[in-house]
Write a structure and sequence with these properties.
2 copies of one chain form a homodimer. The first copy, chain A, is α/β, with parallel strands linked by helices. Chain A folds into 2 domains: about 190 residues, Rossmann fold; about 140 residues, N-(1-d-carboxylethyl)-l-norvaline Dehydrogenase, domain 2 (Orthogonal Bundle). The first copy, chain A, has an 8-stranded mixed beta sheet with strand order 9-4-3-10-11-14-15-16, with helices on both faces. In chain A, strands 1-2 form a two-stranded antiparallel ribbon. In chain A, strands 5-6 form a two-stranded antiparallel sheet. In chain A, α14 crosses α15. Chains A and B meet through α9, α10 and α11 of A and α9, α10 and α11 of B.
Amino acid sequence: MSSTSHSSLSSSGSTSSKHKVAIVGSGNWGSAIARIAGHNATRHSDTFEREVQMYVYEEDHKGRPLSQVINETHENPKYLPGCRLPDNVVANPSVVDAVKDATMLVFVLPHQFIMSTCRELKGKVNPKAHAISMIKGVEVKNGDINIFADVIEEALGITCSALSGANIANEVAQDKFSETTIGHREGTKGKQNAELFFKLFDTPTFKVGIIEDVAGVSLCGALKNVVAIAAGFTDGLGWGDNAKAAVMRIGLLEMKRFSEEFFKGIKPETFTETSAGVADLITTCMGGRNRKCAEAFVKTGKPFDQLEKELLNGQKLQGTETAREVHEFLAARGKVDDYPLFKAVYSIAYEGIDAHDLTSRL
Amino acid sequence: MSSTSHSSLSSSGSTSSKHKVAIVGSGNWGSAIARIAGHNATRHSDTFEREVQMYVYEEDHKGRPLSQVINETHENPKYLPGCRLPDNVVANPSVVDAVKDATMLVFVLPHQFIMSTCRELKGKVNPKAHAISMIKGVEVKNGDINIFADVIEEALGITCSALSGANIANEVAQDKFSETTIGHREGTKGKQNAELFFKLFDTPTFKVGIIEDVAGVSLCGALKNVVAIAAGFTDGLGWGDNAKAAVMRIGLLEMKRFSEEFFKGIKPETFTETSAGVADLITTCMGGRNRKCAEAFVKTGKPFDQLEKELLNGQKLQGTETAREVHEFLAARGKVDDYPLFKAVYSIAYEGIDAHDLTSRL
């Protein structure tokens, strides 16, 4: 990897040739990735400034502000308990202050907060900053589906890559071996962007792959959850390993075909060969809340909104949500029947079709 | 699919336009596939003769010949207990008699019996017969690796396709949803061959895909077991879902690269998109004896030959066997280091390298 470095303003206002990193978000995944970025900023002190800012949405933790607790204990006891963050990761309750002078921005917020955060940051980020989106899901607006890297790029006017992969946060935080994938934009700037983030994140136990396909990497992270619902149905039905593997294979190819049909610059191997594609699909269909709730849906006969209350504390399930969004998108274009697995998931989850009909519809 | 049909000699010696099917083998998978072939021979009575011969290696079953028990009870109580075979599947203890006048031969024997069976059949099969190999593994001879479809084709002088997929036999026998893949030869004859076998096997719960890649389909079935050993190591080490998915992804790409480097006519999508490729890899790395023994190897510290005795009744494990064969093949060509996952599996299984070193070698 190249050690591309750009001039940036240091926090003291003087010019520096080192990159200043800000992590925008501090949930389970945000804290895990801040830990890696913190370690690598120290390891590659030729490229990165030592201090890594981490924006923390301020909330109370046992009577004290969470950001203060993190800075005193070097741990995020609310979202990543038991995992020590390096001292150079500094929690900051002001997002505007956290990104001040930053040349590298890592967006790792829950998707419902991304628009409001971008509005707050507009005009306040370094126009030459590099950004990366680790946000799960896609934005659906006016019947269109947008990836968050595009949303961020448009809102802030800066280049944005995407990172996704078979990355259960708690495993990454324990340095258990993982791979991940950065999808970047075309051209020199896109590649430089990816190489910088490669250097910020790659470690011997968190191996970063790079592919020129920001949309593919982003869509994998959203669409896999729909396939995980189908895989969970097969678990609930007790159909065995052959059926589950078949559903995963068919789902992977629908994910790829959907992305190729409706997005530009998709590389098929993003789906079939990268950690963001086939590997993340495997982890998501084996473990994960989407699979689990879909299994319970079949076994208990309870509707998904009730299971969300019982199993997820009322949080919305991404897979059924994305299945609905994809269905509406396809319906508006008269293409529902071209994606039989997506259609079957929607019909079973929302239209009362018997889950036993899953494979007869493929 | 076309309903291609060829002239053949019927068992009475008169010419018939229908295909006569013989299944060479009657183990767990052989019996499951004979059941499907029997049903489809009846369903497509325009294409197939009603009777399906099934060669049974004669052995004693509770004081009676197994073939006789199968023909009286329409069940193979030894290898597929509890599953009714259709009445038109006829067990035959003579392989020469079973294939007499057959125009379609299904080879589904344990690989150690294939050479002796081919020798016995030489000159005794219809020279226009179509064959398909469902034999797991590869033949290693004089430092070379051959697929069994080639071995059969050369020994008997007839066209041979290959069938492989995410096909746990007991699940297929219960009509649980499965997919499978036929890999066929180039040209019209290869395609006709595949279409005939498609018609013989495809059902609403056993969906057959076709690809022009007999070597790729065969190699998937052999090499996946090496990857399953690596996946089992990660289970034994308790490394979690990220690491296991990463090892599966890396393994899938090594399988593809190995096949592309050393075999002709390989299609990459056989590995990344078919049931024989990615789907079978998933089932094999999730369940299966290779995964299980590799997990036990790490957890107990016992050598594989001891685990084979304890867990497999002394049967040889395919994954470690194939890892050794692939290693010798690569060593003879100075290419061991080009396949780090295959190398790591070999080193851990045979050279006493600590399984913890698995991913540091990738």
